[in-house]
Design brief:
By secondary structure, this protein is mainly α. The protein is built from 13 helices and no strands. α3 crosses α4 and α10 packs antiparallel against α11.
């Protein structure tokens, strides 16, 4: 609960600071700019990115020994996106998906996507002018160093010793096995990398549509690095995506000479677009409630006259999460 309160406070403070500095005008401009065409484009791109995410999740799950039907994966991912965008914390949907279908596969799948996103972002920012272009060689070197360190650690033999070392060795062995079987298998990693790259491209394209919708006319080579920077900023602790995203967008646009107000309007338009694009997840939630409602009503007490009460066995009657 403390972490959630901190995220709420940080997001609220960020938004309050932006309103104090820029007023409410840019926020209202972003809301007013969104039209049917922008919402249709965002919804279409969301279909692509959600299917790719579900495909990636399915590949990782299969590598870890669990079969996940594609239709189930797509529906669960839409539900996850909707919950992430509407509940505090920004990860409630992923937790729900993890408890429903296996937490390990969800953690590895999301981690793989974030790694690919960081690599693609660093690669683009190395060659395309941006507000952080001068720092990118150092970031790239640090990324290579971290990657090498993880690889060396994963290959180290467990140290002999006490219980603490043994437990750490088991955890490391489990993580190495999951990496090998779920992500780095010969047939898995190319598909995971491709799916993740398509997801990054889809999110960046959605942001570019939002920028055009908000009236930003800068050329694509100037806008692409800003879109990728904002996508990284959106991964910071937030409340339904709001807060850090607007702060990073305002800073990035101001540093690029496009104006902080244009950045806020773009971020607000983007937020509205991705929320509307996630609404199929609400339909999945409602369908799940309707499907499980009869079994919930069947547990009413006292039972109707003449109805014999049967004890639940083997976990029947348990709640669905």
């Amino acid at each position: 609960m403390t972490g959630t309160r901190i995220r709420l406070a940080a997001a609220a403070a960020t938004l309050a600071f932006l309103v104090w500095q820029l007023g409410t005008g840019p926020f209202l401009d972003g809301l007013r700019a969104v039209d049917a065409g922008a919402l249709a484009a965002a919804s279409g791109l969301a279909v692509l990115t959600t299917v790719c995410c579900a495909w990636r999740w399915r590949i990782v799950s299969r590598g870890l020994g669990a079969e996940l039907p594609m239709g189930t994966a797509v529906a669960a991912y839409y539900r996850s996106l909707f919950l992430n965008l509407t509940l505090p914390g920004g990860v409630v949907g992923d937790v729900h998906r993890g408890f429903s279908h296996g937490l390990g596969a969800v953690v590895w799948e999301r981690s793989a996507g974030q790694v690919v996103q960081v690599v693609l972002t660093v690669a683009v920012l190395l060659v395309v002018p941006s507000p952080v272009h001068s720092a990118m060689p150092f970031v790239a070197l640090a990324l290579v160093g971290v990657t090498a360190g993880i690889a060396v650690t994963a290959r180290m033999r467990p140290a002999a010793g006490g219980k603490g070392g043994s437990r750490l060795s088991r955890l490391r062995a489990t993580a190495a096995r999951d990496l090998r079987d779920g992500l780095l298998a010969n047939r898995a990693w190319p598909a995971i990398a491709l799916a993740s790259a398509l997801v990054v491209a889809g999110h960046a394209a959605t942001f570019l549509v939002a920028a055009r919708t908000a009236g930003v006319t800068a050329p694509l080579p100037r806008m692409l690095p800003l879109a990728l920077l904002v996508m990284l900023g959106a991964a910071l602790p937030n409340v339904g995506g709001w807060g850090p995203r607007e702060g990073v967008t305002a800073w990035a646009f101001a540093a690029a000479g496009l104006g902080a107000s244009s950045g806020i309007a773009t971020a607000v338009a983007y937020g509205v677009m991705v929320f509307v694009a996630s609404l199929p997840g609400a339909a999945v939630l409602v369908a799940g409630w309707v499907r499980h409602a009869p079994s919930e009503r069947g547990r009413e007490w006292p039972p109707a006259r003449g109805v014999r009460v049967l004890a639940c066995q083997d976990g029947e009657g348990g709640s669905h999460f």
